[in-house]
Design a protein that fits this description.
- The chain has 474 residues and is α/β, with parallel strands linked by helices.
- 40% of the residues lie in helices and 15% in strands.
- Helix 5 (127-134) crosses helix 6 (138-152) and helix 12 crosses helix 13 (419-426).
- The longest helix has 35 residues, at 439-473.
- It starts with 9 loop residues before the first strand and ends with a helix.
């Protein structure tokens, strides 16, 4: 069928046009559907070619060129040097998007720049039109544009992602977590309006400040009420009994809760001393029941819970989580401790030594992980522990990285050495709080936590100074 081509276009024998593509981009060209369309209405959009001394080289429109070759009809062309800057930029971006080897970040940026150009040209242009122009779904274009904006802003959260889908998943989870914070703040604000204005007979315990303690004579300095609005500069660990604290707590809720109660039973470290929870199964279940009974006082409606336990407690503990609407995967997290100091089996000489500990990870309110990671991590025990049951900070950082980010309000009701507090702060938690029944452990843990904070600040200053020197030298 004859098709009228505008006079500004030339009709060229398709055999005179050269196609230059690297070997890695060579692929079969599907022309079946397009040939049928060209037979009916002709070639609507001309191909783009670049003029050289020897020949015409294809820039854009290979499928149309191949169709015209199969149909043995002239192909309408426009010349690269006659295009406006905007037209040439659009064509360049469109061709980049079609490349199979284009890195996903470059792909996302190319789509975003095309969408921007079209939007600047037409005030009514939208994502749906971009999707139609590029022959993609509107959902995909929306996803790509969201990721592209994060790439342009150098969002560190997606730095290690391997695809647009992976980056979008992380950004979607972040959006959900920030929305959950807003909802929780509205809930807390509403609850505060309902409370009696009179002072509470059970005030919230204040953080223990190290510095005034010697030979068992510990003193405390009171600080303003705990708030998630800004990370407090004071030490994060209170000296208090969780069993007394939880039933009276009425402050801000937490969205990541780390629980490491004494397990009790054979094979566990046993220490009977003042201001230390007795290491028995009864105490374990007393602490567990206290937490679950006061869950709504402590946990946000959207929260993650990491709970260390032994496999002998697995069935009952998981059942109690599910009964309290805490979604819990069947398989726990596993900390493998590859060193000779293993935990002796129940039947010495019959059972093998146990070199791992287990932790349930639960989600409240459908909360999704910050990122998915393997459920097992190998790290040795702490060589010089502050607390007899101290957990490895590298291991805690690994597991907590699945649930902690800068939207996290973190609590550990039996903080011990403070290793979980330091791990959460390393991961950027916006607020942290620990409870510890023993003043001596709390004092040492607060000291170590403040050392870690100071070191983190120093490292940031060094990095900022190095970056400043690099910019000056450039």
């Amino acid at each position: 069928m004859d098709h009228e081509i505008p006079q500004s276009y030339d009709l060229i024998d398709p055999g005179l046009i050269t196609v230059n593509r690297p070997d890695r981009q060579r692929q079969s060209i599907d022309t079946e559907g397009l040939i049928s369309s060209i037979r009916q209405i002709g070639v609507i959009n001309p191909i783009i070619v670049r003029r050289t001394e020897e020949t015409l080289v294809l820039v854009a429109g290979e499928r149309r060129l191949e169709c015209c070759r199969e149909l043995k009809i002239p192909v309408p062309v426009r010349y690269w040097d006659e295009l406006s800057p905007t037209e040439s930029r659009v064509i360049e971006l469109e061709e980049n998007i079609k490349r199979a080897d284009l890195p996903w970040r470059d792909y996302a940026l190319a789509v975003h720049r095309l969408h921007t150009i079209w939007s600047e040209t037409d005030s009514e242009w939208n994502q749906k039109q971009t999707a139609a122009a590029l022959s993609f779904s509107e959902v995909w274009i929306s996803r790509v544009l969201t990721v592209a904006r994060a790439v342009e802003s150098d969002n560190p959260r997606i730095a290690q992602c391997g695809s647009i889908d992976a980056a979008h998943s992380i950004l979607a989870r972040l959006s959900e977590r920030r929305a959950a914070l807003i909802v929780q703040e509205l809930i807390e604000e509403d609850e505060s309006h309902r409370e009696d204005e009179s002072p509470s007979s059970n005030p919230v315990p204040q953080p223990y400040i190290e510095g005034n303690h010697s030979q068992g004579n510990h003193s405390q300095t009171l600080v303003p009420s705990i708030s998630h609005k800004n990370k407090p500069p004071y030490s994060p660990i209170l000296v208090t009994d969780f069993l007394q604290w939880a039933p009276t707590y009425s402050g801000p809720k937490f969205n990541v809760i780390h629980l490491d109660f004494p397990y009790g039973g054979a094979g566990s470290v046993t220490r009977q001393a003042p201001d230390v929870y007795t290491n028995t199964r009864d105490v374990f279940w007393d602490l567990t029941d206290c937490f679950l009974t006061n869950l709504d006082r402590i946990a946000s409606y959207s929260a993650h819970i990491l709970f260390w336990f032994t496999m002998r407690q697995y069935t009952d503990l998981r059942r109690r989580f599910l009964e309290n609407d805490i979604h819990t995967p069947f398989y726990p997290l596993i900390w493998v401790k590859p060193n000779p100091m293993s935990i002796v089996g129940w039947l010495g000489g019959v059972e093998p030594h146990r070199v791992y500990e287990t932790c349930l990870i639960g989600a409240r309110g459908g909360r999704r992980l910050v990122k998915n990671r393997n459920n097992a991590y190998s790290a040795p025990r702490v060589s010089n522990p502050i607390h007899p049951t101290q957990k490895s900070e590298p291991m805690l950082r690994y597991f907590l990285s699945m649930v902690v980010d800068d939207t996290t309000d973190f609590i550990d009701p039996t903080a011990g050495s403070g290793s979980s507090i330091r791990a959460a702060e390393d991961l950027g938690a916006r607020s942290t709080l620990g409870l510890e029944i023993n003043p001596e452990y709390a004092a040492i843990a607060n000291l170590e936590t403040n050392k870690a904070r100071n070191l983190r600040i120093l490292n940031k200053r060094i990095v900022a100074e190095d970056e400043g020197e690099e910019e000056t030298s450039q």
